Amino acid sequence: MQKPVLKRGNPLLAQMCQPVTDIEKVRPIILDMKDTLTHIAGLYEFKRGHGIAASQIGHLVRINIVQFNGITQVLINPTMTDFSSDQIPIREGCLSFFDVRGNVSRYKAVTVTALDENGCPITIKATDNFAMLLQHELDHLDGILYVDRLPNGEKDLYPVESMPII
Ligand SMILES: [Zn+2]
User: Which member of 68, 81, 112, 152 has the greatest number of CB atoms within 10 A?
Assistant: First the structure.
């Protein structure tokens, strides 16, 4: 079922999420996350991929769903196991505060391991926009929003239309 996405300022978004220990128990959450993401994808055009964390619909468990290049991937208990030495600034937005953007410094390449929705281990190697998406979504599981990573925080956010592209 589609759920409302929690907005920035909701204390749940700042909480550390707990590891999933029983996938059967979180299946309803995954379904709700998929429905919510599908609904949002029908409203907006996402050129750089998008995703959602369970905490954004109020569940403090370590689950993300990312959609990139037409592929949807459920990530349960994801961990970043490797990252490049170089970082690049990437323009980011977030479903929890959708009307602004910010340029965040992210690793150019990352490796993420997780369980898929069947409990099978997966490894994803990603670069550039996909790497950014994964870093953004993993941050949610630790209660971190991208605005927390901007040097001047709130002051570095731009309305969608006025964002300077670095
Ligand atoms: Zn977000």
Answer: 112
